[in-house]
Amino acid sequence: MSVWSHLVLLRPQALWLLPLALLPWWLGSRAVSDWSWLGSVPADSASDALDIALRTLGSLALVVFVLALAAPVRQHDSIPRTSTGAHLGLVIDRSGSMNSTFAGRTPEGGEESKAAAAKRLLDAFVERRGHDRVGVVGFSTSPMFILPMTDRREAIRAAIAPIDEPGLAYTDVARGLAMAFSLFDERDPTASQVMVLVSDGAAVIDRRVQESLRAAFAARPLRLYWLFLRTERSAGPFDAPADPSQDTPQSMPERHLDLFFRTLGVPYRAFEAENAGELAAAIDAIDEAERGEVQWLEPVPQRDLAPFAFGIAAFACALLAAAKLVEVRVDLSMPGARR
Amino acid sequence: MTSSSAQAAVTSDDAVLAYALRWRVRSPMPGAHRGADAGALGHLRQIVPFDRSPDPRRIDLRASLRDPFGGLHVREFEQRAAAAVHVLVDASASMRPAWPRACALARLVVTAARTLCDAFGLVVAGGSVLHERPARHANADGDLDALDTTLPSGRGIDALVGAAQRVGRRRSLVFVVSDFAFGLEEAARLLEALAAHDTVPLRLLDPAQDLMPRHGLAELRDREDGRRRLVWLRPALHARWREAREAQSRALHAISAAHGAAMLDVGARVDAEALSAHLLGR
């Protein structure tokens, strides 16, 4: 895909002026000295070459100027890019409990809330993986589409920055996951697509919703990571109840969400973090695992090329002006000569 | 500008041109040059028997007495005769800067011819013959004025060569006033056409190159055919140029000498004394 294939003239009728480029070969604009006999002037290839060069330069200036008048633009387009990384969909729990510490208290003094720790570590993670494309979805009572899949670091970090702001009450994992699917576009099926669920709780997923999620996961080559930020003295995904009668999704939503993920048939790993250190280790593990090749299309805005053309024309004109400056004219009118 | 001031501007002073002929003029008109015919006055040429030149006023007593057979002898003198002087002026467009000098030269020759009672003929030819006056003794002022007001134009010297062939069969003194800004073959052709005459090529030098700056770009336009050429002036080119000019000059002088005509280069000023010296020193 060359640059030229995307060159478009917005005002092509200006090209009718192109024959003007022949002017330097027809009309002379130089100071002319009358000479009695050119046969007396020795042949000089350097002078002849200079003559051709100056005329060509004049033609070039006119051609480029006409092109500039024709308003050339490089058309709006997408450029494919390849890098090491993954398409990362971050699904972040924005429920109120994320704002408490791993100990389940409101952060005091130097204590860090789960959300703040997740923010700090995810920010560093995104910073470290410069070639990932990252999209962000938040969820609490309802899902929030925060950032579409992009490789703009500033946007990603800005999307991660507010996740430690006070959240809402409820944790609707299912709708958050459903929305996260819209992050992954279909343009690059070869990219490794990773969904990272960051939450400190789980919720019961309705049977019918389970089926649609199952279908959505089956439709694409996703890998799923669940970073579970476990609060002290609360249930985690790996806790099996002592009493089998207690083993219901309503009483142990974390365990049953984990079980649901395991039945999806996609590569899945769950990390349980009880403090910031474990969270960091979990994120490092994801970092280690996800080193695929990723391709995407970088949108390129339409670009006005007229300034370039004007610049070239101005440069050519400057050279011509320099030649004009060193031009000399020999006036042969002798004393008493009549014209 | 009047013609007199034009002349004053290009001639050094009021010096008068003098010329002498290298041959005996065969002409019925009495004049200032040594004639080929015998006449009553002038230098003694020979002593002949009375019956060959029966003029009792010229009887040479001494020679008659010296004759053992008693024959009468008569002195015979060289007839002073008037010659014809022609000026051929190249009026092609390249002569424009040299034109005042050409007019001044013609004026000098007219004055000299009048002084020596010679007939004066004039041919002005550029692209075509612009003015032609056969050799006559009549006043030439009108012809000089016509010369003054002529604007050199046209190209080539074909018309001049044609006019040169019409100058006449009688040997005359012919001045060719031109810048010789044409090929050597052309120059040879012109001199060939004047082979029967005593030809004096006067080459008006073009000071143009000396006025050229050492550096720069100059677009030169040929006065005759209008062709243009860009010249990148630089010392190396100047050197080559000067060399070429000198080679051309040498070749022209050589061709002139081969045709028995000594060429004189005329610079920015018409120097009558130098011209006289050239003419008398041939």
Task: Give a description of the structure.
The complex is a heterodimer of chains A (339) and B (282). Chain A has 339 residues and is an alpha/beta fold. In chain A, 35% of the residues lie in helices and 21% in strands. Chain A is built from nine helices and twelve strands. Chain A has helices at residues 23-26, 45-69, 114-128, 153-160, 173-181, 207-219, 253-262, 276-289, 306-325; strands at residues 7-9, 32-35, 72-74, 77-84, 87-93, 133-139, 143-150, 193-199, 222-229, 268-273, 293-300, 303-304. Chain A has a six-stranded mixed sheet with strand order 7-6-5-8-9-10, with helices on both faces. Chain A has a three-stranded antiparallel sheet with strand order 1-3-12. In chain A, helix 3 (114-128) links the parallel strand 5 (87-93) and strand 6 (133-139). Chain B has 282 residues and is of the alpha/beta class. Helix content of chain B is 33%, strand content 28%. Chain B has nine helices and ten strands. Chain B has helices at 3-10, 61-66, 99-115, 141-148, 158-165, 184-193, 208-211, 235-258, 272-280, and strands at 30-49, 73-81, 84-90, 119-125, 129-136, 173-178, 198-204, 216-222, 228-233, 264-266. In chain B, a hairpin with a 3-residue loop joins strand 4 and strand 5. In chain B, helix 1 packs across helix 3 and helix 6 (184-193) runs parallel beside helix 8 (235-258). Chain B starts with a helix and ends with a helix. Residues 1-9 of chain B have low confidence and may be disordered. The chains are: A alpha/beta (339), B alpha/beta (282). Chains A and B meet through strand 2 and helix 2 of A and helix 1, strand 8, strand 9 and helix 8 of B. Strand 2 of chain A pairs parallel with strand 8 of chain B, so a sheet runs across the interface.
